[in-house]
Amino acid sequence: MKRFNEITIENLKAELDSGEIKPRELLEKAKKRVDAVEPELNALNRDTFDRAGEQVKHPPDYDQPYRGIPCIIKDNICTFGVQTNCSSKILDGFIPPYTATVDARVTEAGFLMVGKANMDEFGMGSSTEYSAWGPSCNPFDLSRVPGGSSGGSAAAVAAGYAAFALGSDTGGSVRQPAAFCGNVGLRPTYGRVSRYGLIMFASSLDQIGPITATVRGSARVLGIIEGPDKHDSTLVTTPAEDYLAHIEDGIEDLRVGVLNVSYADWVDERVKTVFSKNVNWFKDHAKSVKEVKINSFDTLLAAYYIIAPAEASSNLARYDGISYGPSVEIAGFGKDIDENNAAELLDF
Fold this sequence. Notes:
Layout: H1 9-18, H2 23-41, E1 44-47, H3 49-57, E2 70-74, H4 101-108, E3 112-117, H5 151-158, E4 164-169, H6 175-180, E5 184-185, E6 207-212, H7 215-225, E7 255-259, H8 269-285, E8 288-292, H9 297-316, H10 342-345
Parallel strand pairs: 2-3, 2-4, 7-8
Antiparallel strand pairs: 1-3, 4-6, 5-6
Helix pairs in contact: 2-3
């Protein structure tokens, strides 16, 4: 399956601004693409073309610079009125009564959500094989995984479903699937993008970030979704930045740091080869390239596997069949406390 390089925010915006294509026609093209490819790819848990079509029919009374451009939202980011399940049967049928800040911001800019992306259940995985809706495939080789946990988001962008997708990154879950699928994946600095409406895995690690076809596209999306939000007290208070302002400035003054573990014995030789080619390119074009030592590298993974599971245990404790999640009938117990005789059941 070839990459659809023309599916970029820049190209679609140019076509829409020139009148070469209308939002409704662009939506129809996206739907045809999804209908043709999705049965094999399984990148989406559900499409939202009906909802997007209504938004096209009834545009707001304010200017939307990106009106009509399709996007994908990962299935752990709450979208008002649209099921958000985290690829888990525990949340099957859950329709959020509110929308995530990032979804509200891309919608306000005019982007049309055309689907909720498949993922590893509750973000726990790196291959998108662990989903109650079945595994996603890599669009370049259906026998391979697209990475994870934002694998559905990455596969959808690479397959030409939409101009970009939003994913979430706890320990690489945006960057790794983007790399697997030949996209650009960006994990913003913690506190740069609001996490309001993100169904948490590990609260001190999770960040929402874009998956795009180009660096320019990532700069555009980050500029839209970042910035202060009254719903998230962990955010920095500095205003959103224009990341496109200096994108053409070149890298002559750039200082590049290369981690001292980049050529460790456990790194695949093919990866080392590609990495070396890129390092040599930076040596020819950037101001300087220096080795950066991380003496604690050997303990980083261990620290992650203490922090992440501990926070996940706390966050997922709410799915107990009372506040959230399906209830299970147990023989001898009634539907509620009034139907139960506690003394008899406990054999007092």
